[in-house]
Inverse folding.
């Protein structure tokens, strides 16, 4: 190939590269402008019920009492959104990114939220009843007073979250990680927490009555005054767990060899054959 032809082809290739780059920038600008317009539209209309918003960039969207009933919000960017008291019933929220979002008081009942990212989100008093939250990242979230009754929380991580007074009645929580979670007064009545990690939880006064705690880890946890009546402890590990004032009446499958340094007091109610050392820590 001659030098002249080589220079010609090189120039054509460079021109095409510039054109492609320019076109890509225009496309990105158009996409950004489109999302800005969508945010303005949602803000003006107070929501977007039954809309298809999949993959939309809605970061920092701020609307009070927004209506997204039945909307497709799959893989949307809602990081730092402020949507208190929003209606998210029956939405598709799968794989959505919502770190640090404010969903306080929002209603997510019957939503599909598998693998959602709610790290550091404000979920105070939100309703997650009958929601599919499997594999969700909810670490360091605030979920005080939230309702997770009958929800599917299998393999969810809630490390270092606050869920005082939250309800998890009859929830599926196999493999959930609640390490260092504040659960004062929380309700786990008839919940299923098989193989859950409950290390260092503060669950003073919590209700675990009828729960399945098979193979759970309760290490350095505080269950003072907790209702543990009729709980299944098959394979559970209780190491340095505080149980003063707790009621374990009717609890089954407690293995004395797996109670290591757990302690109680005169007010602790234990099933036959189980003894605890007195709490000194």
């Amino acid at each position: 190939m001659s030098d002249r032809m080589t220079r010609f082809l090189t120039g054509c290739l460079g021109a095409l590269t510039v054109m492609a780059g320019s076109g890509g920038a225009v496309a990105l600008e158009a996409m950004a402008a489109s999302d800005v317009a969508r945010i303005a539209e949602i803000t003006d209309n107070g929501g977007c019920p039954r809309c298809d918003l999949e993959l939309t960039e809605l970061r920092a969207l701020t609307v009070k009492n927004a209506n997204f009933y039945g909307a497709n919000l799959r893989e949307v960017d809602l990081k730092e959104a402020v949507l208190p008291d929003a209606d998210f019933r029956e939405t598709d929220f799968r794989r959505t990114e919502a770190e640090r979002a404010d969903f306080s008081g929002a209603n997510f009942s019957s939503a599909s939220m598998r693998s959602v990212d709610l790290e550091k989100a404000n979920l105070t008093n939100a309703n997650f009843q009958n929601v599919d939250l499997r594999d969700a990242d909810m670490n360091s979230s605030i979920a005080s007073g939230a309702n997770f009754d009958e929800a599917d929380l299998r393999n969810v991580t809630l490390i270092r979250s606050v869920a005082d007074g939250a309800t998890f009645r009859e929830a599926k929580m196999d493999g959930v990680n609640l390490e260092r979670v504040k659960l004062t007064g929380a309700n786990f009545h008839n919940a299923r927490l098989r193989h859950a990690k409950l290390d260092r939880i503060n669950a003073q006064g919590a209700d675990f009555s009828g729960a399945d705690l098979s193979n759970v880890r309760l290490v350095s946890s505080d269950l003072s005054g907790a209702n543990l009546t009729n709980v299944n402890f098959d394979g559970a590990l209780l190491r340095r767990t505080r149980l003063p004032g707790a009621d374990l009446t009717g609890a089954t499958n407690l293995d004395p060899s797996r109670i290591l340094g757990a302690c109680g007091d005169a007010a602790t109610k234990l099933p036959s054959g189980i003894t605890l050392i007195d709490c000194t820590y």
Summary: The helical segments are 3-45.
